[in-house]
Design brief:
Helix content: 25-40%
Largest sheet: none
Radius of gyration: 13 Å
Shape: flat
Structural class: mainly alpha
Length: 48
């Protein structure tokens, strides 16, 4: 089985305090996609 570890690097230093509605929507979509992969047992963990 292959294993990968990823680290999120924000696009700017003040990203979280200045996140836009568009960026929030993208994060939501990404999280839903990852949750679906987890339910399919294609990944074993996701989230913060």
């Amino acid at each position: 089985m292959k294993a990968y570890l990823t680290k999120w690097v924000p696009p700017r230093d003040d990203f979280l305090p200045t996140i836009t509605e568009h960026e929030k929507a993208l994060f939501q979509q990404h999280g839903e996609w990852q949750a679906d992969l987890r339910e399919q047992r294609l990944i074993v963990a996701q989230g913060r």
